[in-house]
Amino acid sequence: KEVSIKTLRNYFYKLEKLNITINYYRHLGINMGTEIYYALRYSKKDCYNLLNQHFRNKKTERFQRRVNAYIKINYDKKDNVKNGECLNNKYIKEERETERKKRVNKLKLKKYAKKCNFDNEISSFIISLNLKKETTIKLFKFIIKEKYYLKKENNCNLQKTLQNKKRDLILILRKAQKNLIKEGYDQRKIETQIQNTYQKYKNKPHFILESNKYKDFDQIIKKIKDNTNKTESQKHKDNMKTNIYNILLDQLHNKTNTTNLRSKIKEYLNKQNKLEYKKIFNNQYYNEIIKLIESQNIYKNSYIN
Fold first, then answer.
1. 85 Ramachandran zone, left/alpha/beta (phi>0; psi -120 to 50)
2. Residue 220 forms part of a structural domain
3. Is this structure's pTM higher than 0.70?
4. What is the tens place of the pLDDT at every residue in 241-267?
5. Which residues contact 93 (CB under 8 A, 6 or more apart)?
6. Angle at Cα 111 formed by Cα 108 and Cα 113, nearest 5°?
7. Is residue 26 part of a domain?
8. 227, 260, 279: which is the final residue of a domain?
9. Is 290 part of a structural domain of the chain?
10. Which InterPro entries match (predicted)?
11. Could you give the CA distance from residue 204 to residue 207 in angstroms, rounded to a whole number?
């Protein structure tokens, strides 16, 4: 079977290390490789003998290492001489066999615990109790069973908690829906968007319920208001309220502090069930706000023109 040039080159390197050949290396340049010229130090027959002896020595060394490892694991000669023990002592053999079985059982129990996904600390503690193998396995099975029932109970509690949170979420969204409709936004669009919000947050209701921690609810209401138009009647009411507010502010701006005046006008208009332009033209709103200002001692002058 033909060998590659690289393999052949490695053979020559090895033969030189074994003092079988004398090698001369001629470098052909960058990325061009190397030529190897060689000469045998001995006759071909002697070279074969040296190679065979090298492989025999390696085989003997490997065998001796296996023997030493076996003796080290199974027989402690130093302890036997020191303690005056006999390697053929029946009781020593039984004791060692017992220790071997214990080690094997511990390894099996560790493998079983790992298969059952036990925590390392818990499994190590249970195994260190040195119970019988069957007893330890029964204990593992009992713990697994208890963990299963505990997990099942926790899942039930989580489901109950989630159901309660869903009910709270429905109440909050219904209240928000009523407020938005009351403010004059289109009822059909509001109902659709509130339903979409519920579908999105029904499995994570805490984002809305914990409004002091999360800003989702405020952002949802703002988004609904931006995407939903008010009804024409509500727009008309809002425009009327704005116009009346501006007229009253212009009429009363020299009567008191502007900041206080604005808040008083808004407060007054919000209390009115129905706003009418005729009441601004006959000065009814004007006179009532003047009286309100007088009663709260915010009036600038004691004389009203």
1. beta
2. yes
3. no
4. 888 888 888 877 776 666 677 888 888
5. none
6. 110
7. yes
8. 227
9. yes
10. Borrelia_plasmid_OrfA
11. 6
Q: Please report which helix (H) or strand (E) contains residue 72, including its range.
A: helix 44-74
The answer to whether residues 209 and 241 belong to one domain is: no
Backbone conformation region of residue 299, classed left if phi is above 0, alpha if psi is from -120 to 50, else beta: beta
Same structural domain, 218 and 236? no
Q: How far apart, in Å, are the Cα atoms of 8 and each of 32, 35, 36, 243, 288?
A: 17, 11, 10, 102, 114
Label each residue of 148-170 as H, E or C: HHHHHHHHHHHHHHHHHHHHHHH
Over residues 87-127, the pLDDT tens digits come to 556 667 777 888 888 888 888 888 888 877 777 777 788 77
* Residue 110 backbone dihedrals phi, psi, to 5 degrees: -65, -40
Structural domain of 188: 158-227
Last residue of some domain: 227, 247, 277? 227
Query: Which residues lie closer than 8 Å to 174 by C-beta, 6 or more apart?
Result: 194
Question: Hunting for tokens 């085989």 — which residue is that?
Answer: 59
The number of residues making up the chain comes to 305
Q: Is residue 29 part of a domain?
A: yes
